[in-house]
Amino acid sequence: MNVRDEHTRSLWMDVSVADAPALSGTVGTDVVVVGSGIAGLSVAYELASHGRSVVVLDRGGIGSGMTARTTAHLATALDDGYDALVRVRGLDCARRYYQSVAASIDRAEAIQGAEHIDCDFQRVDGYWVQAPETAASELDTELDCCRKLGIPVENCIEPTPFHAKGQVRSLRFPRQARLHPSKYLAGLASALGRRGAQLYADTCVESIHQRHDEMVVTTASGYEIHAADVVVATNSPVNVQVAIHTKQAPYRTYALAAKIAAGTLDDALYWDTLDPYHYVRLQPHSADEDIVIIGGEDHKSGEANDGAQRLDALERWARERLPALREVTHRWSGQVLEPVDFAGFIGHAPGEEHVFIVSGDSGQGITNGLVAGLVVTDLITTGASPWEEIYAPSRKIQKNIGEFISENITPLKNFAEYLAASEIASVERLRPGEGRLVRSGLKKIAACRDRNGRLHLHSASCTHLGCVVHWNSLEQCWDCPCHGSQFAPDGTALNGPAVSPLGGVEKPANLEAAE
What we know:
Blueprint: E1 27-28, E2 31-34, H1 38-49, E3 54-57, E4 73-74, H2 82-89, H3 91-114, E5 122-129, H4 137-149, E6 154-156, E7 170-178, H5 181-194, E8 198-200, E9 205-211, E10 214-219, E11 224-227, E12 229-232, E13 248-261, E14 268-272, E15 279-284, E16 289-300, H6 307-321, E17 328-339, E18 345-348, E19 355-359, H7 365-381, H8 388-391, H9 401-415, E20 434-440, E21 443-449, E22 455-459, E23 470-472, E24 477-479, E25 486-487, E26 493-495
Parallel strand pairs: 1-11, 2-3, 2-12, 3-8, 5-14, 12-19
Antiparallel strand pairs: 4-7, 5-7, 6-7, 9-10, 10-11, 13-16, 13-17, 14-15, 15-16, 18-19, 20-21, 21-22, 23-24, 24-25, 25-26
Helix pairs in contact: 1-5, 1-7, 2-3, 3-7
């Protein structure tokens, strides 16, 4: 199981990436890649293209993790703004960051062409649209910064459908792109098969350690994979206990897809200046219709349980600007990990020589996954990458300390919940699809009734670092607000950093009272 088993389904989930068996024995290889999303399969493809033997493992289906819950914008424009990156990490870092994301999009374009992957790849413009609630000075600052960095950008005063109240200002970034992520991953998986790589689904990794002169990956079924190097590309790294998780924070984001007459909306990427911001793109559907994908309404993971209302708000926002919008076909949510200094974490895991991680995708997970294919492959094959310092997971947070402290207050607030009263007097009052935290002595219990009416009782302590999980009624899962782990109603871990399921508990007598 993984996040594909949560309740909502995205547009991309209509396409199967690849059929793969579960691992059923001990194997050896040059590189083990844990995770089969855009980062994992991009790394695997590049390594296989360099002649390395590769094994890819996923706790769920191939390509069915967070990549299937993205909206798949490929952008050189930084969603936090290059001005913010310059202030925190300097001009040289920002310039090289741009070079890395531009190169990664070029690489995706080259791969889909060379491998004949029909994934709807298209170069498009990107528009950062001024929202009426924000000042034009934000665009002025970013425009000046991009020009200083040599990043192609134009000041645009032609209105888009996403302007409002007389505002017509935006910044136009040329040569952005969009693709169908599941079709692209399917193409990579097929190419990997032709290169002899082995893909295994429904294979949960429990540990990664060094034994003598090789790395050993052990699965929940007790099988081992022996390799020279291991790449952990699991959205949130499952092999790092603390080091990375203090430097990034999990956020839920929401998206919907709706039909619109072909030609109604120009094919481009759009995002506005609000915080949290809205983001929009097109996906080809038929000769007569396109699909509009709208995202936004983000919040810290586990700190709100109103996903259905947020999707309703997203639809209202879209229909106000696109009155020709037709029926909504898909509504879903996903999770992004926001790095406090604006660049992801790609490279050597802290303190490790032969273990690499990919995380901190922010709102640009597809682009960062493509970057990982280039950076990690360079590190493994040549020992260096021109961009390794930008993404180094072991880097220290030198500036933006206020944001670092703010994001790390969440665990402190969360641990205080152990002292809070129950959210419901009796578990018998739980309705199908409902979950609540209840107290039993000094323990907190995560109690939920699945949509079939079956009652589940588990420890409310996340198996990563013990934070109290919160119920997500939209996705029918438990979310950890501290570091982004997610658990199914039966306690199974769906998303890292947690690997183990929530602990089981007996039904205490005091939870049956108070009808």
